[in-house]
Amino acid sequence: MSHDYHDPEAVKSANLARLGHMAGQIADYFKSYPEEQAVPAIAAHINEFWSRRMRQDFLAAFDAGSGELHPLARAALARIRPAAGQ
Amino acid sequence: MSLIKEIDFGTPIRIADKTVTLTIDGESVTVPAGTSVMAAAMSVGTKIPKLCATDSLEPFGSCRLCLVEIEGRRGTPASCTTPAEDGMVVRTQSEQLHGLRKGVMELYISDHPLDCLTCSANGDCELQDMAGAVGLREVRYGYEGENHVFAKGKDGLANENWLGLDTSNPYFTYDPSKCIVCNRCVRACEEVQGTFALTITGRGFDSRVAAGPTDFLGSECVSCGACVQACPTATLMEKSVIQMGQPEHSKITTCAYCGVGCSFKAEMQGDKIVRMVPYKDGKANEGHSCVKGRFAYGYATHKDRITKPMIRAKITDPWREVSWEEAIGHAASEFRRVEAQYGRESLGAITSSRCTNEEVFLVQKLVRAAFRNNNVDTCARVCHSPTGYGLKTTLGTSAGTQDFKSVEKADVILVIGANPTDGHPVFASRMKKRLRAGAKLIVADPRRIDIVKSPHIKAEHHLQLKPGTNVALVNALAHVVVTEGLIDEAYVRERCDLADFEIWARFIAQEVNSPEASAEFTGVPADEVRAAARLYATGGNGAIFYGLGVTEHSQGSTTVMAMANLAMATGNIGREGVGINPLRGQNNVQGACDMGSFPHELTGYRHVSDEGTRQIFETLWGVSLDMEPGLRIPNMLDEAVGGTFKGLYIQGEDIAQSDPNTQHVTAGLAAMECVVIQDIFLNETAKYAHVFLPGSSFLEKDGTFTNAERRINRVRKVMEPLSGKAEWQVTIDLARALGYEMPYSHPAEIMDEIALLTPSFAGVSYATLDKLGSVQWPCNDKAPFGTPLMHVDHFVRGKGRFMLTEFVPTEERTGARFPLILTTGRILSQYNVGAQTRRTANSTWHDEDVLEIHPFDAENRGIKSGDLVALASRSGDISLKAEVSERMQPGVVYTTFHHAETGANVITTDYSDWATNCPEYKVTAVEVRRTNYYSQWQEKNREEDVSLRRIAGKSAGNLADAAE
Questions:
Q1: What is the H or E stretch that residue B508 is in?
Q2: Cβ-contact B116, B52 below 8 angstroms
Q3: Which residue has the higher pLDDT, B167 or A85?
Q4: Given CB atoms, is A44 within the 8 Å cutoff of chain B?
Q5: Does ipTM surpass 0.85 in this model?
Q6: How large is the average pLDDT for residues B671-693?
Q7: pLDDT digits (tens, 9 = 90+) for B767-786
Q8: Where in chain B is the domain with CATH 2.40.40.20?
Q9: pLDDT tens-place string over residues B85-105
Q10: A to B CB pairs, distance under 8 Å
């Protein structure tokens, strides 16, 4: 949980890990619903509350199938609105 | 301007459907049944002399001054204890009554000092007034006899009846020599405050008011001041009045402490406050107050106030005092430089939950219209953001459902994760009054907080759960309701979405949600949970009140929805006496949320992606608005550490002390290139700032605050801003320097714009507020007088929506290294980060944060009360003194975060609520051990209190936030 605040790479990977963790928490809430409801709900939550840069960083870090991510959050990736106009 | 004096009817005005008509001094009077003859007389302006009666208290009938004659009745009954009856014929004045009253007053005065000219109550003494009213001209008994007045007798020997002055309380004195034993103080302590700290000792001539067997400070007294206000003489008197004399004018304003939002009369001499007196017609408090609102206003003129703008290039440079023009110009050019270098999204702002609605509105407007992004957030992020999410999702609106008065109709009160007697004391007094009248209480809290058991209050059930298991507990309560057939089926069928209900009912009925299964997590015995659920579901009107113990968890939003499910399933929303009510932390945290302080919402909780809403704002503001949600506070800090967020405008907020994981917060702040602080003190966050814009206290400006019951109350200026400008003026200047004009000449015009843009505020204006006193939003054409109760015929969202609320344990786990759970909170005398209360005599009650620990855990570690202990978590460590306390359960420790030098938030982690990122303050795995040292962070912080706070040309050290 603690960063080495002077190492930019460590900070960056900690921030991406945090986004993955946040998405995982959201997925953990919606997992009680059937998958066909949960997946759009997870994406909608992220679209509603995350800034465009957060979404962009998140998609870039996890889209390629890389990184450890909650399966439902991964299923929601396709529905997350990419940053508009970028 | 004059001194506002409410009418005192002598006894409470009763509410009744039936009225009675009687004749008083030949005049016909109609009043509600149950009204006393005294109050009936006052309702037509006839003042019957009185001493022991006042309308905040039940009649007592002891002074015998209010005697009247009633045709057909023998003797001269006391008008305060005699109910008015149909056809009664009352005379309030006659030869006989005149003689009796004069005789009573003569006796009183024979044992009362005659130092009226030099007495502190001179000009505001009911005893003096009554002596005048009854025409007392002589005291035939003389003053030499047995008395309570003189320290020594004529013979030079000590007078055994005499008691000296008690000055132990920092705010008021008790002078027994002036006491007439009318019992008003004792009754105020019981009936109004509910503390029962005062009593009458002795009998007959020996009767004395006493704070138990000790002085006031050493007693149970909570210094609410109700006794002082009730006292008709100078016996209990504010020290400020003793020092300054009587006020000459007053204005009605609103307290700037907690979310109860009490109305006060600021009683003034010129621009100096003599005292704050709770206003009887204030709907939130109805004439009551606590030690903070009534007494702790001295911070507003404290010597630590920074009144000149300051700038510096680096945070290690000393501050340089500059003109307003230079400071504003510098802030604007730095913001523009950062923007040019790092992009439009590298800037943002935090609005203050302590500033007015109008000021908050302007800051978010500045962000959206001048920064041209949506990076604005507010301290509600770290307290009640899950309330907004949870209640909006289930019920359709981001606020509590009731007014405070509604608690008078509650039959079962469920308090979850709130400590009302400390955090929301004036509402707690109302709640306790209802409990003494017979309502039942269920408390769910890891600690045995005061309301669990206090004089004449005892919770039926104290569900002492382990921190972090709220969802499991509330699910278990709902499980009982569903499986034992306690659902209000007609209500659910009529008002809720049935498909969602059925899915929920099946989910909650699962064995895993039963009290027996969840006891493994909660630690609460299953039969206790079952009994509590039955009581809530079947005990009549069930009302839920909750606080940060619900929201500040990784499942905060889930708990809010679980409580809404429970309330809907039992039909407990939509009428008086029920509901689900957040006890909001700060004075204007509701308002800050309403005003569009969240990065995804414009005013009135409308999402920024909504074309229609955005268009209304764009038309009026003349700019196009970003449709993308902005950054929340934790996201801002993450991005700052990551190097993409560089400029922050912070209005009256101290995130370096109040937000979790201090070292992460300060790393984020230190990584920014332009931090602008608008505050009244050089707070912890200001150590990391480049521009300081002096703020104004609530006494220095006009505006409105919105309290936890959605009540919009007026704040009125009683003195000029010490810095020359109120915050709203400074924000306008900053916007102008950024190239965006905000042409307002008075906060009233800002409110007019809010009303224009926000459907739920459409009917709000200063004229409306002046006329009605206050209104609860929604206030518009449909509800011109506001809306005390929400969801009356149907839910705001249409059908109430049951949400699934599976318990997901927090990832913050105890283990071998960190075996205990730390939970944090607040206490009565201090407020939030303490910036205000620490600069008042309130520190008499609490001058440092201590760690409460159960005797079992303490003994294991060889810890005694008063020992210095090291408290360590995965985030950091600090040292503070321990206090062994059985209020705790084994395995759980507790501290407050009121004192900056303690650094309680060095310990807390950055785990947060899944839906809103509200930090998990209430659960941190820790270890505690004895130590002889302060932690490295504390030592460094102590150095930085000086090194990062220097002001060029001023001696260092005296500005530390820790200073008193």
A1: helix B498-508
A2: no
A3: B167
A4: no
A5: yes
A6: 96
A7: 999 999 999 999 999 999 99
A8: 820-947
A9: 999 999 999 999 999 999 999
A10: 77
* Upstream peptide bond of B778 is cis (omega within 30 degrees of 0): yes
The correct CATH number of B385-582 out of 3.40.50.1220, 3.90.550.10, 3.40.228.10, 3.30.9.100 is 3.40.228.10
Gap between the terminal Cα atoms of chain B: 34
| Contact list, A33 vs chain B (CB under 8 Å) | 804
Q: Where are the domains of chain A?
A: 8-79
Q: Which of B559, B635, B636, B665 to mutate to test the interface with A (most CBs of A within 10 A)?
A: B635
Residue B317: per-residue pLDDT = 95
Is domain B19-133 given the CATH code 3.20.20.70 in the classification?
A: no
DSSP one-letter string for B64-132: --SB-EETT-SS--BTTTSB--TT-EEES--HHHHHHHHHHHHHHHHTS---GGG-TTTTS-HHHHHHH
User: Span B820-947: which CATH code?
Assistant: 2.40.40.20
DSSP class of residue B787 equals: -
pLDDT digits (tens, 9 = 90+) for B489-542: 999 999 999 999 999 999 999 999 999 999 999 999 999 999 999 999 999 999
Show residues of chain A in contact with B641, CB under 8 Å.
3, 5, 11, 15
Q: Say whether pLDDT at B964 is over 50.
A: no
Query: What is the pLDDT confidence band of residue A1, given thresholds at 50, 70 and 90?
Result: very low
Tokens 């609106």 correspond to B397
Going by pLDDT thresholds of 50, 70 and 90, the confidence category of residue B54 is: very high
The one-letter amino acid at B111: D
Q: Does A26 touch chain B (CB under 8 A)?
A: yes
Q: Which residue has the higher pLDDT, B648 or B833?
A: B648
- Residue A31: list chain B partners with CB under 8 A: 806
Tell me the backbone φ, ψ of residue A78, rounded to 5 degrees: -65, -25
Q: Considering only alpha carbons, which residue of chain B is nearest residue A26?
A: B914
Distance CA B418, CA B410 (A): 17
- Contacts with B915 (C-beta within 8 Å, 6 or more apart), sequence order: A26, A29, A45, A49, B386, B389, B390, B556, B557, B558
pLDDT at B573: 96
Q: Flag whether residue A9 sits within 8 Å of chain B, measured between CB atoms.
A: no
Q: What is the pLDDT of residues B294-317, one digit of tens each?
A: 999 999 999 999 999 999 999 999
Split at pLDDT 50, 70, 90, the class of B404 is very high
Domain(s) of CATH 3.40.228.10: residues in chain B: 385-582
Q: Is B914 in contact with A11 (Cβ distance < 8 A)?
A: no
Assigned CATH for B172-300? 3.30.70.20
Q: How confident is the model at residue A37 (pLDDT cuts 50, 70, 90)?
A: very high
Are B254 and B698 in contact by the 8 Å Cβ rule? The answer is yes
DSSP line for B730-749: HHHHHHHHTT-----SSHHH
Interface test with B, best of A7, A21, A32, A51 (most B CBs within 10 A): A51
As a CATH number, domain B310-382+588-701+717-750 is: 3.40.50.740
Candidates B377, B512, B638, partner chain A, best to mutate (most A CBs within 10 A): B638
Burial (CB < 10 A; 0-12, 13-18, 19+), residue B142, is: exposed
Q: Where in chain B is the domain with CATH 3.10.20.740?
A: 19-133
CB contact under 8 A, A28 and B808: yes
The beta-carbon neighbor of A54 closest among B557, B607, B635 is: B635
- Nearest by CB to residue A1, choosing from B635, B667, B874, is B874
Every domain range in chain B assigned CATH 3.30.70.20: 172-300
Q: Is any Cβ of chain B less than 8 angstroms from the Cβ of A29? A: yes
End-to-end CA distance of chain A: 31
- Interface contact A31, partner B, CB < 8 A: yes
* A54 vs B contacts (CB less than 8 Å): 631, 635
Residue of higher predicted confidence among B175 and A64: B175
